[in-house]
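Q: What residues go here?
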């Protein structure tokens, strides 16, 4: 008799226990299953409920592939973590002093052979490289890599003796061959490939090695600006001599340069550059690491500043940086950049702007003091091409102060009469006087351009605004000279020479006579002034140059901007009041401390 049969018998007799009753409910091995597969049915609920056991089972069954996959994932995670910005800064901060600066802008190229007005590139170059010679604020040459020099009486031969104590950031010694290589490569890039390089002004200059520490420049004629021409950063021959000349602009050197300066780039990304103190610099920098952060606009810069990310920030847009006044723990330094002039350039190639009476009339409509005040611009009004601080400044130049009557007189001479019913100046064809103002689009320029537009509208002239991207401005406007009015900021040299800005031979791209201004007497004055080193003669030439240029009014000179540098008070920085260009704040960076 089976157990089940026995259990039923006991049940009838009332002798079955509770335990025996539950055992009778279990399926018996003797039961024949009809219509049911022997394969266990899949249950998602059971699988999820028992996932630890299932994962372990899957891991064991797929071994050794599972082990390889785990190690790959762990390795990738560790690599990503080690490369993170947060870890880099935290780790550095624990071991060393870290200085974090923020600026608005973007990286172009750190290779100093190419001429650029990009403030970001110039800042990094100033940290990484050393110049052949330096130029003081008064224009006199100062020693750097070159420690001595002798100039021939005719002003055509310059002999330089260099210091042999400088080293590249890879430990190699800087030699006279590096200096010659730098200038010759720059000349080749300009001559054979059409690049705007520091060698453009040395095309006819011969450079010869005289000794291990001596080289000679031989000029075809005297040039009073020569010291400024050779005041350029030196690059390493042993790094670049193996690179094809045509490939120089695209070489990794543009992002990871090797110089002889105080800091070396060890990591470079689109929005941040990391630099560490060079162990081969002639003095050990007190700040070990510099983190140079970039932001797309001043709003992003403000956010980083308010969040305590930055030790310092700088710029010429004082209005957009005014929020720093809320933080007493920061010190503000400010200086006038006489080397920079913001102006409205008239394209004298255009028929509407050929007549200088039209250009002079527009000049008289602008109240520069009100413009600076309304736009909240920190700067100094400019009335001519040479700053008042220069030894060559002419205080008797034509100054166009706001004068509506004089503006109307000049417009009348140009064929424009003000329609009293409409309030606008009209030509003989009854068309309203109007122009298009092109400019690089950003918040500050938008604000300034609209103030300029409203100022002229109130006086009867229509201005149409054309904001452009950097690419559009450089390739479609500056390169082709296809504009009517152009708001632009020019960077001048310390020397009063402005041959490249106003000589008629410099009217085409890539030269900078953007207005197309042409006057034979001005050409002769500019040529004569740079041929002589006699300061008295040069002053006389530049006095006349400024007189003729301002009388012809090819531009509206607006202002020289102030540069503001805001830094934590506990960080010791150098003298920032006497800098000519913003990047010169880093000249004594090795002595800064945090």
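A:
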């Amino acid at each position: 008799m089976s157990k089940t049969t026995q259990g039923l018998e006991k049940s009838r007799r009332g002798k079955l226990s509770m335990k025996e009753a539950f055992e009778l409910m279990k399926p018996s091995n003797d039961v024949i299953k009809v219509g049911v597969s022997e394969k266990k049915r899949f249950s998602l609920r059971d699988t999820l409920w028992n996932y630890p056991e299932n994962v372990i089972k899957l891991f064991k069954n797929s071994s050794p592939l599972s082990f390889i996959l785990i190690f790959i994932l762990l390795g990738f995670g560790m690599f990503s973590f080690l490369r993170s910005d947060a870890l880099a800064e935290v780790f550095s901060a624990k071991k060393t002093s870290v200085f974090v600066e923020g600026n608005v802008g973007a990286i172009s190229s750190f290779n100093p052979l190419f001429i650029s007005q990009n403030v970001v590139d110039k800042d990094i170059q100033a940290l990484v490289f050393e110049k052949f010679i330096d130029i003081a604020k008064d224009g006199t040459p100062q020693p750097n890599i070159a420690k001595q020099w002798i100039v021939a009486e005719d002003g055509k031969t310059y002999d330089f003796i260099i210091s042999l104590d400088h080293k590249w950031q890879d430990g190699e010694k800087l030699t006279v061959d590096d200096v010659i290589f730098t200038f010759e490569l720059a000349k080749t890039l300009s001559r054979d490939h059409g690049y705007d390089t520091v060698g453009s002004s040395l095309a006819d200059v011969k450079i010869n090695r005289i000794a291990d520490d001596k080289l000679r420049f031989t000029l075809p004629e005297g040039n009073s600006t020569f010291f400024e021409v050779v005041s350029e950063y030196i690059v390493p021959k042993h790094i670049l001599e193996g690179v094809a000349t045509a490939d120089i602009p695209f070489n990794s050197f543009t992002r990871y340069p090797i110089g002889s300066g105080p800091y070396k780039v060890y990591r470079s990304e689109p929005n941040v550059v990391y630099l560490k103190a060079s162990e081969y610099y002639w003095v050990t920098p007190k700040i070990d690491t510099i983190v140079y952060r970039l932001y797309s606009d001043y709003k992003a810069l403000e956010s980083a500043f308010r969040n305590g990310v930055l030790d310092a920030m700088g710029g010429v847009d004082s209005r957009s940086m005014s929020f720093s006044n809320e933080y007493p723990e920061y010190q503000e330094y400010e200086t006038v950049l006489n080397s920079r002039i913001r102006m409205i350039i008239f394209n004298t190639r255009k028929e509407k702007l050929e007549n200088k009476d039209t250009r002079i009339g527009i000049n008289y409509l602008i109240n520069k003091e009100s413009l600076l005040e309304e736009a909240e611009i920190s700067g100094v009004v400019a009335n001519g091409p040479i700053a008042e601080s220069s030894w060559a400044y002419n205080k008797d130049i034509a100054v166009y102060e706001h004068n509506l009557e004089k503006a109307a007189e000049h417009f009348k001479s140009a064929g424009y009469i003000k329609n009293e019913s409409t309030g606008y100046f009209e030509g003989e064809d009854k068309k309203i006087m109007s122009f298009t103002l092109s400019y690089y689009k950003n918040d500050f320029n938008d604000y300034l351009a609209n103030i300029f537009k409203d100022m002229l509208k109130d006086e009867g002239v229509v201005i149409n605004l054309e904001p452009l991207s950097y690419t559009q401005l450089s390739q479609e406007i500056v390169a082709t000279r296809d504009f009517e009015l152009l708001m632009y900021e020019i960077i001048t040299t310390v020397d009063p020479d402005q041959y490249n800005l106003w000589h008629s031979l410099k009217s085409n791209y890539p030269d900078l006579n953007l207005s197309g201004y042409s006057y034979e007497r001005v050409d002769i004055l500019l040529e004569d002034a740079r041929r002589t080193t006699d300061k008295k003669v040069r002053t006389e030439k530049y006095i006349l140059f400024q007189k003729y240029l301002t009388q012809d009014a090819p531009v509206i000179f607006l202002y020289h901007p102030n540069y503001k540098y805001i830094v934590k008070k506990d960080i010791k920085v150098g003298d920032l009041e006497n800098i000519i260009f913003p990047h010169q704040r880093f000249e004594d960076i090795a002595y800064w401390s945090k």
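A: Context that may help when evaluating the design: The mean pLDDT is 89. The longest strand covers residues 555-568.
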